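Bump. Still looking for carbonic anhydrase structure tokens.
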Amino acid sequence: MTSLSEIMIYNKTFVEEKKYEEFSTTKFPNKRIVILTCMDTRLIELLPKAMNLKNGDAKIIKSAGAIITSPFGGLMRSILVAVYELQADEVYVVGHHDCGMSSINTDHIIGNMIERGVNPNMFKTLKYSGIDMEKWLHGFSDVTESVKKSVDAIRNHPLIPTDVNVHGLVIDPGNGKLDIIEDGYKAQEVSQ
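Sorry for the wait, here they are.
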């Protein structure tokens, strides 16, 4: 049985038994926060529990490493929509220890791409088009510095209101312990 078949069989029962009712909420985050975090599978349930969040409390945006790579890319667009349309007034960037992006080998990824059918000439075309695959796929060596960099990118974005607090945290995926890297409230006090 395929994973899609398993999902669809389960979903049919889920809907028929009205299991969705316990998750009913609105599109607006109850706690008025948006979280940018990593897509790591260990964080799916751990992060919300560690932050005392339930369904409907926060907008959660996930990407590899919680890294803002472009000031006008999809991640920033999602944050801006959460702030301007969905009533979020605080942003949390949450990185984690033992992140795969801290040890990423771009040559290995490119090798895997070629092995799975991407034409090697495509990388020459991309380079000619100004795309530096090494830079684009690169992760980070220090999660604390990476979180600070993403916080700065959000906090200093020309479209983020100055009254939006931007916080940076790092979570331990083994036990859920959160460490504050950037306190957005303190940053607000300093800038006023």
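Residues 105-138 form one domain.

Edit: fixed formatting.
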